[in-house]
Amino acid sequence: HIGSRAFEGCSALEKIDIPSSVASIGNLAFYGCSALKQIHLPASVTYIDSSAFSGCEQLEKLVILGHDTEISFPILKNARTGIKIRIDSRNYCIKDHIIYNNSCSRLLEFLNPNTNEDYCTTEEIVIGDKTKHIGNLAFHNLSGIKKIVIPDTVIQIGKEAFQQGDSVDEIFIRIDPAKAKIEKSAFDGINANCRIYVPVGTSYAYSHHEAFTRFKKDNIIMEEPEIP
After folding, report:
1. 41 has which bridge partners?
2. DSSP 37
C-alpha cells in the first residue's frame, strides 16, 4: 500500500516504478509531484483513492493495468491537461475525453485535452445520453471549453461539478429541475455571464434554483422546441 500523501511535495520526482507488491494507492499519494511525467500502475493495484495524482503539473501519461481496479474519482484534479491515460479496468470506459463507469450511467471525470488556452483542440462537450449522474468535481478543469450540452437523462449533478469554466459561453441543460437533484455549488466555477439554455416552461424554475441564482436572469433562455 502507498499511503495517503506518501510522496506529497516531492517536486524533484520525475519517474517512479510501482512494484507488483502494491495493492492500493492512497488519497493525495502523489499530490504536488510537479515534475512527475509518467506513472505505470501494475495489475496488482486494485484500488486508487481520490486525488491520488492531484497537482501533478507535468504528468503526461498514466497507465492503470488492473482489470478489476476500483477508482475513487476524481484522481487528476489540478494535474496537467492533455494527459494520455489508459485504464484497463473493466469497471470504466473512456469516451470523448470523459471517464464513465462501465454502463456509462455515471460520469466520473473529464480529461481536458486542451494543453494550451491559445490553441484548443476541443471547445464543446456533449455528455453521453446514457448519463444519469455527474459526479462531484467531475469537470474540475474546463479551460478552453466554450459549450456544454447536458442531456435530459441526467437526474443528479454533484458538488462543484463544473470548475475553472471562465471560457464557457453556453450551457444547454435539457433536464427538468423539478426531477433532478442539482447541488447548489454544481456550477460555481462557470463564468457568471454564461448563457443557460433550458427546456420550454422551465426558465422560471431555473432562475430561482439555488444552483443558478449567480447567473443573470436574462441569460437563462428557453430553447425553442425542435420541429419534427
Report:
1. 64
2. -
The upper half-sphere exposure of residue 71, i.e. CA atoms within 13 Å in the direction of its Cβ, equals 29
CB 161 within 8 A of CB 182: no
Query: Read out DSSP for 83-106?
Result: -EEEE--TTEEEETTEEEETTS-E
Contacts of 43 (CB under 8 A, 6+ apart): 20, 65, 66, 67, 88
Q: How many CB atoms lie under 10 A from the CB of residue 199?
A: 18
DSSP states of 140-205: ---TT--EEEE-TT--EE-TT-B-SBTT--EEEE-S-TTSSEE-TTTTTTB-TT-EEEE-TT-HHH
Q: What is the pTM of this model?
A: 0.90
Query: pLDDT tens digits for 15-34?
Result: 888 999 999 999 999 999 99
Q: Which residue reads 450540452 in cell numbers?
A: 149
